[in-house]
Amino acid sequence: MGTSKAVLHVLSGAVPQFLSSDMCSTNLDLVFYSKCLIKSAKKYGPKYLRSLKCSSMSGCRIESYRSKHLGGGLYRNTTIDRLKLLSCKCQQAESVSGVDTGRGNEAWFVDNAKKTNLNSSINSQNISEFDDAEQLKRENEASISNGKAGTGTSTFAAASVDSIEEEAWELLKASMVYYCGSPVGTIAANDPTSSNVVNYDQVFIRDFIPSGIAFLLKGEYDIVRNFILHTLQLQSWEKTMDCHSPGQGLMPASFKVRTVPLDGDDLATEEVLDPDFGEAAIGRVAPVDSGLWWIILLRAYGKCSGDLSVQERVDVQTGIKMILRLCLADGFDMFPTLLVTDGSCMIDRRMGIHGHPLEIQALFYSALLCAREMLTPEDGSADLLRALNNRLVALSFHIREYYWIDMRKLNEIYRYKTEEYSYDAVNKFNIYPDQISPWLVEWMPNKGGYLIGNLQPAHMDFRFFSLGNLWAVASGLATTAQSHAILDLIEAKWTDLVAEMPFKICYPALEGQEWQIITGCDPKNTPWSYHNGGSWPTLLWQLTVACMKMNRPEIAAKAVSVAEKRLSRDKWPEYYDTKKARFIGKQSQLFQTWSIAGYLVAKLLLADPNAAKILTTEEDSELVNAFSCMISANPRRKRGPKSSKQTYIV
Ligand code: GLC
Questions:
Q1: DSSP string covering 155-207, please?
Q2: SS (H, E, C) 35-76
Q3: Which PANTHER family does the entry link to (predicted)?
Q4: 321 conformational bin, left if phi > 0, alpha if psi -120 to 50, beta if neither
Q5: pLDDT value at position 424?
Q6: Prior bond to 503 cis, omega within 30?
Q7: Which atom of ligand 1 is nearest to the CA of 206?
Q8: Which of 206, 575, 587 should be mutated for ligand 1, with most atoms under 8 A from CB?
Q9: Is the shortest distance between the CB of 207 and ligand 1 below 6 Å?
Q10: FRET pair for 61, CA 20 to 30 Å: which of 320, 589, 601, 608?
Q11: Average pLDDT score over residue span 371-378
């Protein structure tokens, strides 16, 4: 049956059997549309048609679908090209073979609550009103321990640290968001005292990653699995802004579970998943990082749980391919790096990072390697795999070669000739040496180096962006030598990058006229605040992953001990302000979930460094060979293994 015929068939109500509550997982590309969804769409308009829905009524229970809106009226021109029955029992994603979904989170949370003497009905309100006396006790314990041992390793300090961790777990639990009874994510911030929640009451894809990793490392797989599958359902949603639809494959920045009245019954309600692809976000920017993080989390889920059935599902494979196709699509680019707008990642407002920002490139490289590992070979994917391999090689060459700076390279740039026209120009991007700012001349340590923030024609953004550098280490986008040099630089510049709270999002801040022009006079991004040189505790987890990869855990341990002194006392802020991170950020949310989860992931990885492998990637020999072939073909510099005889065929 052709798609449109099938849609008609379904619209006419010819497939009621799909509404069975035990119609669970399917890998088939079913075309399905439920009657109640249509009714709701009529009543609430297209907005609710776009949402994943789950009614509390028994007769209208399965309604997840993937659709592509081709424009025009709701019924006339809408093609529902694929629909998957996501879950049954109305409430849950289908059970995973080999994974106990029966007890799952519930069991752990009950145990955990018992352990900490907390009632299982604890809510954020209770948690946020943490007893001052308890706090004081903890501080006293810490200061006693510091006085005695000075290392934070005494029993008192250990007890204090334990209670911080316990508190963090409780807060993480309280941040969980449920959809039809199943946990599907964590809310961005859970601050009951905040009068300005903006969109922090949503589940952000990027913010959930540390939460998801913490759950995985704790053996709680269901929430991660549910998150992966539900966000997948949102991936190909109809999404428009002022009549324009972005590319298929885009993952939302965030989603919210809404409870809405059920059509025809004033007393009943239903839950809908309402995604935001950037059309409601500040700046209206599409989140390029969401899909990349989704792939990285999917691989981590498989590696940690041992359950590969999720990544092997046809709809999940399709989801991976859709993200890849969107990223690998031909454009006008001369560079292998992804061209994106300002604010399309963690830094989601204007900060002068449009073009080819390092953060996106590191996540792109990481997601390509993860996807390569997970894609099941099939006839139709040969072209995609070829494009992926080519891009991996070109991307790593480009970043390692052109984004890298250290003292030697800086001196080279300082002496650059400009206006070179030729194929073998040394100064390929026509960088004028005067761009080297005085701060950089002073700042660059003798030992160490880093990847610059962005590279454009005649423009190098020399700012140090932490997430991009840390993930370049974690993913292996940076070479081994470069990775160690990045960690050397972090050690050398500790007072700038860590100071009183890890970790500075970028260094240095934009000030004066530069701030005015580049941020558009953004009052939230004033110098040394928020995205403009603010300090973000969540970055602790990426720092820890990078340190574990390079077998230098002591750096992460030191940063965690700095964070531990304040995080709980300060109520887990989103970010800190000032050059040395002394103040809680001016507009910082409190009880920010990814600050809490980031801390927990760092602690879990310090306890079990091997676990970092679920997040790190390595080049395999094929890629190393391909890279070395490319290096030897480069007239300017030779680097990498020389002895390799194999060639890489793409
Ligand atoms: C801010 C951050 C963004 C984060 C969101 C939710 O907008 O810039 O990275 O995802 O808050 O915490």
A1: HHHHHHHHHHHHHHHHHHHHTEEEETTEEEEE-SB--TT-S--TTTTSEEHHH
A2: HHHHHHHHHHCHHHHCCEEEECCCCCCCCCCEEEECCCCCCC
A3: NEUTRAL_ALKALINE INVERTASE 3, CHLOROPLASTIC, PTHR31916
A4: alpha
A5: 87
A6: yes
A7: 10
A8: 206
A9: yes
A10: 320
A11: 93
Say how far apart CA 186 and CA 207 lie, in whole Å. 8
Peptide bond into 502 cis (omega under 30): no
Residue 260, SS3 per DSSP = strand
User: Ligand 1 atom closest to Cα of 202?
Assistant: 6
Average pLDDT value over all residues in the chain: 78
pLDDT at 57 over 90: no
Rounded to whole angstroms, the Cα distance separating 255 from 273 reads: 6
203 CB under 6 A from ligand 1?
no
Structure tokens at 56: 């509390």
Side-chain half-sphere of 73: how many Cα atoms within 13 Å? Answer: 3
3-class DSSP string for 367-418:
HHHHHHHHCCCCHHHHHHHHHHHHHHHHHHHHHHHHHEEEHHHHHHHHCCCC
Residue 578 confidence (pLDDT): 98
Decide whether any atom of ligand 1 lies within 6 Å of the 583 Cβ: no
Tens digit of each residue's pLDDT (9 = 90 or more) over 489-526: 999 999 999 999 999 999 999 999 999 999 999 999 99
Instruction: Match 């081709």 to its residue by tokens.
Output: 70
Closest atom of ligand 1 to 253 CA is 10
Asked if residue 208 has its Cβ within 6 Å of ligand 1, the reply is no
Instruction: For ligand 1, say whether the CB of 397 is within 6 Å of any of its atoms.
Output: no
